[in-house]
Amino acid sequence: MSAAFVPHYPSSLNSISNSTIRTRVFNLPKQSLISNQISSFVNPLACNSPSKNRGRFFCFRHESSSSEFLKPEAGENNTSKKFPTLDQPNNANGIPVLRKARDAVFGTEPWVVPWTAKTVIQVMLLWIVSFWLVGSWIIPFLAYGLGFSKESLSYRGQALYSLLTDIAEGLAGIAILHRCLARFHPLSSDWFRFSLRGKWQIDVGVGCLMFPLINQLSQVNLNLLPLLPSSPVTVPNVEQSIVARDPVAMALYAVVVAICAPIWEEIVFRGFLLPSLTKYMPLWSSILVSSVAFALAHFSVQRILPLIFLGIVMGVVFARTRNLLASILLHSLWNAFVFLDLFK
To answer: Which GO annotations describe the biological process of this protein (predicted)?
Structure first.
């Protein structure tokens, strides 16, 4: 037991004779006792050394009073603040090396999250439900009421239909965020931050270097989880418009995949979910969990691996810059890269 945990009772110890004290202190020989007293007097810090103090109830001091003889050192409970521990090697500030490395990569100031996990779950569930309702029910129902369906439209009509649907889904998601977080306003300045200042363009450029690796993961994913033979092969509308070489339709689809989708998705997954998770887990775990959620939201098992890795890259860029403009631009560049790859 450490010396810090021994209670001090000066009133009771005053009544104990010096011979009794000598008997209770491990029955040390007189020469050893004198030697320890001289050593502690010459080097007082040696008494506080954790390695020498673990097997003793207290440090020997050269005092005349028997009650003060057993008195623990002042501040003994704070020895961990004076000496480095196993997870604080050779660090005068008491900060672990791993924490220093994390701060060097992501910065030192954490997000201040005023809401709880209940709000996080509520926002994400409402966002998923609204995404499904708007895209699968509300917009088709309105189109049916106007006397047409998506399948009956031309390439340009289908592209415009997709653009309006995506805008409606994004606005619904932002409305949910605003409604659920209204009672926590005003938020700190690092929430949902858009800024042209800083050197965030460098982080975006480094993230773009990951695109070939993400593309390779797409092929690995298809090899691991190929399409089932019984699954119907459908050609997306965007690919049909490319085959037809309709410039207006291609331009509308480019707006959907390179502008609208990155804005809505980054606001939800990087702007809201990732910082909110840091209240309950480390930053690297928050990046990973938000990336998995981002991949699952695309409802494509054949693209799960590249989407997770893409989410990690965008999460790291956002955590470093604290700027949604950086992750949105990186997301937009990736979608544009995939869109242009369809022209091959």
So the answer is: CAAX-box protein maturation
**Claim: this prediction has a pTM higher than 0.70:** no
Instruction: Give the whole-angstrom CA distance, residue 275 versus residue 282.
Output: 10
| Number of residues that make up the chain | 344
The string of pLDDT tens digits covering residues 7-40 is 444 444 444 444 444 444 344 444 444 444 444 4
Residues in Cβ contact with 338 at an 8 Å cutoff, skipping those fewer than 6 apart: 257
Dump pLDDT digits (tens) for 169-208. Answer: 999 999 999 999 999 989 998 899 999 988 999 999 999 9
3-state secondary structure of 77: helix
Q: How far apart are CA 223 and CA 217, in angstroms?
A: 10
Q: How far apart are CA 124 and CA 129, in angstroms?
A: 9
* CB-CB contact of 162 with 253 (8 Å): yes
Per-domain residue ranges for the chain?
Answer: 3-84, 117-341
CB 145 within 8 A of CB 312: no
